[in-house]
Design brief:
The protein is mainly alpha-helical. It contains four helices and two strands; from the N terminus they run H-H-H-H-E-E. A hairpin with a 4-residue loop joins strand 1 and strand 2. Helix 1 packs antiparallel against helix 2 and helix 3 runs antiparallel to helix 4.
Length: 160
């Protein structure tokens, strides 16, 4: 007979049976939360991708029209191939058409030059100077003017 104010300690078999369903419940709840978070982020990514893909499809149609009516700067086959490649890159999320990318490309062009020519190239790429031409006309000409003051010239009056 048990003593009136003492606890009975459950056997290990009973304690495992009581605790185990709780651990399984917590584990399954945790897995469900992870699955819901992944599904939510996937839906958000798809929404962003669908907007980008819609924009990319519109750009493709515009480029394709230019290819077919001859207003692009390329022959028809090359133009259509490039437009299709751009659309495919957009589908894969590899098409970066941002200002940061343009700036990086400008700097990369200057980095390809010899060291002594780079500062002038970087100055021209800042677009402070005159910009003429287009890709259609064969190229873009960027011009900047740098004034360098040389050593003073001394003129001796009546001297030889």
């Amino acid at each position: 007979m048990p003593v009136p104010h003492q606890y009975q300690i459950p056997t290990p078999k009973k304690s495992v049976a009581i605790i185990r369903p709780n651990i399984q419940f917590l584990f399954h709840t945790f897995l469900m939360m992870i699955a819901m978070l992944m599904a939510t982020s996937a839906l958000a990514a798809d929404k962003g991708n669908s907007t980008n893909l819609t924009d990319a499809k519109a750009a493709y149609q515009k480029q394709r029209t230019a290819c077919l009516n001859g207003t692009s700067n390329e022959d028809r086959a090359t133009c259509l191939r490039e437009a299709g490649a751009a659309l495919e890159a957009a589908r894969k999320g590899q098409l970066n058409d941002t200002q940061a990318e343009y700036k990086k490309n400008r700097l990369d062009r200057c980095n390809a030059l010899p060291e002594r020519d780079r500062p002038d190239c970087l100055q021209r790429m800042k677009a402070d100077g005159v910009v003429e031409g287009s890709a259609e006309s064969g190229g873009i000409l960027r011009e900047s003017v740098t004034t360098e003051v040389g050593p003073p010239v001394v003129i001796v009056p009546g001297g030889k």
